[in-house]
Amino acid sequence: MSRPPFLTLPACARAYRLATSRGEFAVHEARPAATPRGTALLVPGFTGSKEDFIALLEPLAAAGYRTVAVDGRGQHETEGPRGTTGAYKQAELARDVHAQAVALGGDVHLLGHSLGGLIARAAVLEDASPYRSLTLMGSGPAAICAPQQARTRMLVDALGALDMDAVWQEMRRLDGEAAKPAEAVENAPAGPVDPALGAFLYRRWMATAPEQLMTTGAQLVAEPDRTAELAAVPLPKHVVSGVRDYVWPVPSIDAMAEQLSAARTVIDGAEHSPNAERPAATAGALARFWDLS
């Protein structure tokens, strides 16, 4: 999970619901003042939302890119079915991404953060035609590392037994700070949370479908390595990470990038969420890659 550094949309951005062939999705879209150089679609990670990319919107628009960050099915402000897990299988979420890209006009620079990277990879492997490039950010080649698997299983088990508020309170207690359960799950850096941000993170948690979290959490602990399949897709690729990452170790991310023959960017001072931790440097790296793609 990313902690957005702020929550107010920049003047270049607006919130709306993107209509697609698979339903409507809540998005934040930023547009440059001039004709866009391209369109980017940003897919958030486990327990995340479009707000995780809020600090990228203005610098990417300034660089000339129409940028659309999305809440996936069952995430935050995008509704999802309850009482079933089938709607949140990876293939279904990948088809949602495909529908979003088509609705945006195709030729999209696709970016997935963390779990979003696995979903974006599945979308490209299913049908690469709507995409101009693929960026995997804070995302690795296969299942998350063993300590994070244990934490994620604990969260999934709790969601099967308790309501969302009870899980929130228990994970806060275990984490030992006024923070979010998913930050404990992903071992994000600890630290004080601004009250307004804390309130938002709680609202987002409560608005997310538990079935989505249970299904995608199970995906994180069982994801196969599909790097060789992805390497065969003739699409420009970019792998971005911080200097440290507790979800996928950086050496495994390095090896994936090499196998993909991908452009590789390590964001100084960032960990699992360069999009939120070092947005200016991250936006610059993304725009430079897209300019060449």
TrEMBL record:
InterPro entries: AB_hydrolase_1, AB_hydrolase_fold, AB_hydrolase_sf
Organism, scientific name: Streptomyces albireticuli
Annotated GO CC locations: membrane
Keywords: Hydrolase
Protein name: Alpha/beta hydrolase
Domain of life, per lineage: Bacteria
Residue span, AB hydrolase-1 domain: 41-284
Keyword Phosphoprotein among record annotations: no
SUPFAM superfamilies per the UniProt record, alphabetical: alpha/beta-Hydrolases (SSF53474)
One Pfam family named in its UniProt record: Abhydrolase_6
GO molecular function: hydrolase activity
